[in-house]
Specification:
By secondary structure, the protein is an alpha/beta fold. It has one domain. The chain is 35% helix and 30% strand. The mean pLDDT is 89.
Length: 96
């Protein structure tokens, strides 16, 4: 996600289970964020319900936000989950 040509956030969406969290997924999103100079890195996995947690990495100047996006249930419930994710991404971009 860019603003005024400046990278703010890298959002890496996976279509596989996020638990247990795989080191290669963390390394990949950190590499993307570092290469682009983005201040935030977010991993998104499919799941049964929305969840958000932060994965701190002491050796890296940024933490990785890990999200589970609800992809089961009614179409309406899944759409609401996607809308919440979009709203959170917009809010994160405004705070930078």
């Amino acid at each position: 996600v860019h603003r005024d040509g400046r990278p703010l956030l890298v959002l890496d969406v996976k279509w596989k289970r996020g638990a247990p969290l795989r080191p290669d997924d963390l390394y990949q999103v950190i590499a993307y964020a570092t290469a682009l100079g983005a201040g935030r890195a977010v991993l998104v996995y499919p799941g049964r319900r929305d969840r958000v947690w932060t994965y701190p990495l002491p050796q890296v100047p940024r933490a990785v936000e890990v999200r589970c996006l609800q992809v089961v249930g009614t179409r309406r419930a899944c759409r609401r989950a996607l809308e919440r994710l979009a709203a959170d991404v917009r809010a994160a971009c405004r705070s930078h």
